[in-house]
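Tip: read the tokens left to right.
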């Protein structure tokens, strides 16, 4: 669930990016951290190894055995249908999406895939569990994926959307607990507005942002033991950040 925490740090990192922190310095810091982690692994190989393992096997849904890719291929049709049905009875969110950019919906699609792949690797055979604990994890993660791509412009708007977002997340989670089940709806998601900065992603200083974000992340990591650090550093970090960042770049 640390992926959600990483997303929340992103806004703070933008303001605190240190211009003097070059990519070369960042690489040196990364190498130094990797050496520390390697030393920790040697000292406690069992704990370190357990923290970095992600499940890559299959799960059984009904009478069907499915791989991770099978599950993810069936995911977005279910999610988009759930979103469309949610909008049928939530006019406020529908109006919000009508005023949002088309690139934000694509961002949500990308974030849902990334989020659920992370949960698949983390939970393994428990991915389809319906226990309260697992359900709560999925709901929070799904709501976080939506909020990452559809940030509110102010606290008042955020508070109004929060309840609707959680209700939407609960609906999505209920449907996705049956991978591959047909998802039908005759209600359409609004097209939204054209993202005015589409195609200008190269103008966004992603390297500087990642440098500032990584500096902020390293400060946070300093409060954890080396064994826990390995669990925090995810190979999906850059993808997790880049999807919503590029969506924001394209907006007016």
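Filled-in amino acids:
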């Amino acid at each position: 669930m640390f992926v959600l925490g990483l997303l929340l740090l992103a806004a703070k990192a933008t303001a605190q990016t240190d211009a003097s922190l070059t990519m070369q310095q960042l690489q040196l810091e990364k190498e130094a951290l990797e050496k520390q982690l390697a030393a920790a692994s040697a000292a406690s190989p069992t704990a370190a190894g357990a923290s970095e393992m992600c499940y890559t096997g299959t799960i059984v849904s009904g009478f069907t055995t499915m791989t991770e890719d099978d599950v993810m291929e069936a995911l977005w049709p279910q999610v988009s249908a759930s979103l469309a049905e949610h909008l049928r009875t939530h006019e406020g969110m529908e109006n919000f999406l009508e005023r949002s950019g088309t690139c934000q919906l694509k961002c949500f699609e990308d974030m849902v895939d990334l989020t659920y792949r992370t949960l698949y690797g983390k939970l393994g055979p428990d991915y389809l569990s319906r226990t309260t604990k697992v359900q709560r994890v999925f709901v929070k993660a799904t709501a976080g994926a939506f909020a990452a791509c559809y940030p509110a412009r102010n606290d008042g708007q955020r508070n109004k959307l929060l309840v609707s977002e959680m209700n939407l997340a609960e609906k999505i989670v209920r449907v996705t607990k049956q991978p591959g089940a047909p998802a039908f709806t005759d209600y359409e998601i609004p097209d939204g507005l054209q993202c005015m900065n589409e195609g200008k992603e190269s103008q966004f200083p992603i390297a500087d942002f990642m440098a500032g974000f990584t500096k902020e992340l390293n400060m946070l990591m300093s409060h954890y033991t080396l064994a826990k650090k390995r669990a925090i550093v995810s190979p999906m970090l850059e993808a997790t950040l880049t999807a919503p960042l590029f969506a924001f770049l394209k907006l007016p």
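The CA atoms of residues 86 and 167 lie 8 Å apart. The longest strand covers residues 59-61.
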